Every structure is written in structure tokens, then in C-alpha cells.
User: Fold this.
Amino acid sequence: MTAQPQTINQGAFKAGEGAYLFQLAKLEGIPGGAAYSTAFGSVVEGIRTQCGLMHKAAGTGARPHSHPNEQWNYVVQGRLRVSIEGEEDQIAGPGTLIYFPPNVVHATVALPEEDVLFFVVKDTTHGIAGNPADGKATGGYYGSE
Assistant:
């Protein structure tokens, strides 16, 4: 029996050693931060980067949180309300690339009109999930909380 490659995120897929092409939309998904977010999708890990295709249902999303690794989100479908510590909230639609620096508190919520699909890339100094800013693992944002 061949040992499965070690991953940072439980349920993620490991790239390399013959695994080079991935149909992200067809891979089994994992929570993208269950303590604070509704994001769910596939994650593939390389040596220095991890990426995934994440989904957020309409009107749901991530409460304020941070993580020690930097993050890029590319919006494929839908629109997100983006909150980044110290900045005015903005709306990001399809084709928008969003950057979150390490350790900066931020939140993203799908607008109520439609689900959001986004491609995420983070370095592997930390897993895909971060830590809720309020320290409470109460789950994602739902509706008008």
C-alpha cells in the first residue's frame, strides 16, 4: 500500500510526484475556515503555495479573521463585499483580484443576489484557514448578522 502524501490541510490534494493536472471543480471539497466562514471547496497544495476553488452561498461569507500567510482571491462568479482592516468596504465582481496581506483582519461576504465562486492562492506558511478576529469559533456569516 502506498502512503498518501502529507498535506497541511486535512482533505487537501498534494501536487507533484505524478499529480500535475487538477479539475478543481470536480475534486472533493473541504471547509475554508469553518470557525468563521462558509467557504467550501477543493484545495491543492504544492511546495510553497496552496490554491483552491471556493464557493460561498448567496448572503453568506466570512466574519472578520486573519492568518499569517498572504492571500489572493480571484472572483470567478458573483460579487463579494470585501472588508479589509483600515479600508472602506468595496464590492468585488467577476474578474477582480483581491490581495490580503498577512495578519490583516478582513472579511468577505457574498451579496444576496447569487452565490460566489472564487479562486484562492495562499503561501504554505500556514493552512488555508485563519483565525476569527473575535477568537470565537461560531461559524460563518449568515445574512444580516
Summary: The two ends are 49 Å apart (CA to CA). The chain has a mean pLDDT of 95.
